[in-house]
Amino acid sequence: MTEKPITFIVLVLPAANEIQDQIICEHRLSYRHITPPGECFYHHLKIEVFNETSRENLTYGSINNSDHNKKIPCPQQIEDICTTFNGNFTWFKGANLLPGHHEAKLLVENAQKDDEDIYTCICTWTHNHKLYNSSGSRKLFVKEKAIYRNVEITSPTSKEQLVDKGKKTS
């Protein structure tokens, strides 16, 4: 018998007056799965429901580098599900659909400050004729580009430098 702990995080958007700015509930349950060869697996599930203001803290990390073009990978767990179940990727920037982006990695070309946001990849897949969605988000940060003014090259002072073979230069 093998135990495999699994944690799910569920984001609930405000749809009713009962949802407040706090954790709504926590539920724990166990699921027993017996495979055809007779192996028994216990999956312990802990389901926590958060409000939308917690969203930024529930990402799979951030993209924070000085690259001009930013590559945002779909979280590995979501990519694995999508590959296993032959799913389709969809990307969102904040709450806005990014049409035409259906790969496991999203490229934000010439990233600017207004590109900073939470990017979510959603994998839509089917199992036993039932449609499922799995999603994961990453926060994109865009660093200010460094601007160097009045750059002066101080060495070498001439266009050519000559050296005798075997001598060191200073």
TrEMBL record:
Xref: InterPro entries: Ig-like_dom_sf (IPR036179), Ig-like_fold (IPR013783)
Protein name, UniProt field: Uncharacterized protein
Lineage: Eukaryota, Metazoa, Chordata, Craniata, Vertebrata
